[in-house]
């Protein structure tokens, strides 16, 4: 899905203009706290906010001085092909300047905003200014078949050369006449010739479960070659919904960077009267008379078959053609569930990948507090808030929504795979619907697991380096784990002299296991072993305390506290700014000369 732009306003002087921009784009207005009173959402620091949105892949439109946006994103600049647009708008609305991502939507955004404000779009991209187009950004429905030639071709045109366009492409009609060949057509590109392909074809495919990816690719490649059609003239790969997770189909779409869209058997059966090779066998098996032909026709809409079904031992394919380029894809996406961990709480500990996945998601699912911690990233998105204790319900809901073709983010604190929802998602997917799992559609979704900063990492960073040597994590919640198992693991960790991070140390009704853990540990390590209590990490009410192991009191701990217990070697370094906890790895022997550098 297209990522929603962010409109931000830094001062009251630009509020009226910013509101007009936000309304023109149909998005919320973000304003600096205390400066912009009519904003839909607020931020405290303009540089940090712009940087976070840029890192998340959101187009940033700032009604502010250009320098603010430049300073915000400058440390993050890298590959211009992957950077989101950044646009600056003057407070009086007179000038709109695309600063970054001119060929990734910034120029278009600038012109759209300028039109709404009756302002000047200060587009400086050479191709747009001189030629009125960018060769590396063809319009919707067209694809550049030879991207490696675009930059040189643009440089030659800007240097005064002209071009000869072969084929029908109205958007290239304004180029100056000359000898450089530019081809617009569906056939595969010639070597060394700048070629643009109109995406007028829908590729329908089907295959048996476990079909080798190379078999499907060879079948399709042969059909396209016989038809004289480049893979880049395809608008997408279309198939039956039960094939949404078929590795061969996924590999084919990835091979040519094509979107995958799926249809139900009923939707494909609606094409039965247009099929060239209907099959009763296929109908008996999947509920429609043809998968590849039906999917190609459904994907093409009013188009017609260019190539009927072609088959191999385990795969089929067909090709449908339309009169005009395809700009709106039919069918539904496979569906994606991103399992993301947002860290302990503060935005600076949230990874850019997590921010990007949240930005791309259509829907957010999670415990309400965690969704609130996303701040502006969650604004305007559909939310499904679940209470504590609703873990199974939220995972089922997220999977089933993704199974309907939606892009869903399941939001967890810390790292989603550490005492969070990651394992439960895969446990539900590992069960069939009859075994109290999730639906078949939910089991076919794409699942992305993105790492986050876990609570034990956040606590360790605040302490110093308590995890400098071997450590483990133990949850003291006996809601899902038998008490006997927890005690067995506690004894083993105590005997092994591990640094231990205790998760879920206490609750309102569970107060004894932490005290038992203390007594077990005291049998194997000194009474003065340092213990760190870290509560509300990364939040305004963060609290960090140190205790001796024998002085650890259960009443000081709650469910928002991570308890780090040192090993017998852990120490507190008493520094001017306060104590810092660390666990040496053994370098003292080398420092003291007892261990050779090569030992």
Automatic annotation (TrEMBL):
Its EC number is 2.1.1.131. One of its GO terms (molecular function) is precorrin-3B C17-methyltransferase activity. Residues 337-549 form the Tetrapyrrole methylase domain. Keywords: Cobalamin biosynthesis, Methyltransferase, S-adenosyl-L-methionine, Transferase. It holds the Pfam family CbiG_C. Residues 49-128 form the Cobalamin synthesis G N-terminal domain. It comes from the Bacteria. Residues 202-320 form the CobE/GbiG C-terminal domain. This is Precorrin-3B C(17)-methyltransferase. It comes from Pseudooceanicola sediminis.
